[in-house]
Amino acid sequence: MLGIMSFYFYWFPTLLIIKTPVINILLENEFPLNQRTLANKIKAKGIGLHTGHESVMTLRPAPVNTGIVFRRVDCNPEVEFTVSPEIVGETMLCTTIVNSVNEKTIKIATIEHLMSALAGVGIDNVYIDITSDEVPIMDGSSSHFIFLLQSAGVKIQDVPKKFVRILKPVRVENEKGGWAEFAPYEGYRLNFSIDFAHPAFQETAEKMTLEFSSTSYFKEVSRARTFGFMEDMETLRAKNLGLGASLKNAIGLDESGVMNVEGLRDKDEFVRHKILDAVGDLYMLGHPIVGEFTAHKSGHALNNQLLRALLSQPDAYELIDYSESKPPVQYGSSKVVA
Predict the structure, then answer these.
(1) Phi, psi of 273 (to 5 degrees)
(2) What is the structure's pLDDT at 102?
(3) Region 210-225 average pLDDT
(4) CATH node for 8-160+331-337
(5) Active site residue 300
(6) Alpha-carbon Rg of the chain, whole angstroms?
């Protein structure tokens, strides 16, 4: 007993789920496409891929129109980060959000896999409390975060979900031949191609298209892990990056191929993971997208530049809901009934 209310505790290796017994989870096939939050608070613990720091992350339900709010609860006072493209301050090998408090820079790194999972489940409003400067890497994919969110339960709220609908093409490029663009499309389609000069990539597909829905996201990309090259590790660690990396949370590549004993989860796991990253990076808009995203040799920097370019052109998009029509993007139908 805790006070006058009983709680049920379900233990897993790296997470703790707290559920009250008065909530039932039902599945329904049809309901208005409204905003979503979590049904229950849930915790996860792990280490950061780049810092190696251990952190405890607590995800909590949030009211309608709150958005996705990260909070560094180890700081005094606590520091909040409301998700938007403008708070992305660093993009070297991960997406890092930055806030300045009393002339001190406060960061949370490697948020893209969690953001990708939130996009896949369709969570609009959530508080994410974290005790360190990096989101836990878990297994290097978004699958553990999806399990976390589904275990907490999804609560349908009373306000329509808002979408960013692309109205005209927007494109950004870099000096290394990479580019990314948005175009109008009645759905959410992601096209991605990669080009790495390494033996492992010659044996795998380097292009992929995802017609986004919760189902296709879970099935096609959520299990794809991040990857890195052993030849880069010394340089990365000299820059205090990759300090938490291991073959348990990433695909390692030496000069000849994949180092992980189990091999790849899919023959084209590399490009699948790049789409997973893109889904998370693009969800920094705070809303799902209705449109087509196409990219070649893109990464966190170009993905964020594309969002900023879009927002700089008010005639290139609109913020809409589908309260009176069928939405072109489909999500799962977990619904919480008190």
Answers:
(1) -70, -35
(2) 85
(3) 97
(4) 3.30.230.20
(5) yes
(6) 20
> Are residues 332 and 214 in contact, defined by beta-carbon separation less than 8 angstroms?
yes
**In the structure encoding, which two tokens stand for residue 113, read together?**
């896999």
> DSSP 3-state assignment of 181?
strand
Residues of the chain with CATH 3.30.230.20: 8-160+331-337
Q: What is the three-class DSSP state of 39?
A: coil
Instruction: Domain 164-321: give its CATH superfamily.
Output: lpxc deacetylase, domain 2 (3.30.1700.10)
Contact 49, 137 (CB under 8 A): yes
User: What strands, in cross-sheet order, belong to the sheet with 54-61?
Assistant: 8-12, 15-19, 42-47, 54-61, 126-130, 68-72, 79-82
Per-residue pLDDT band for 5 (boundaries 50, 70, 90) equals: very low
Nearest to 189 by CA among 224, 217, 226, 222: 217
Return the residue matching tokens 């990759």.
242
List residues bridging with 193 in a β-sheet: 207, 296
The CATH 3.30.1700.10 domain(s) of the chain lie at 164-321
Q: What mean pLDDT value characterizes the chain?
A: 89
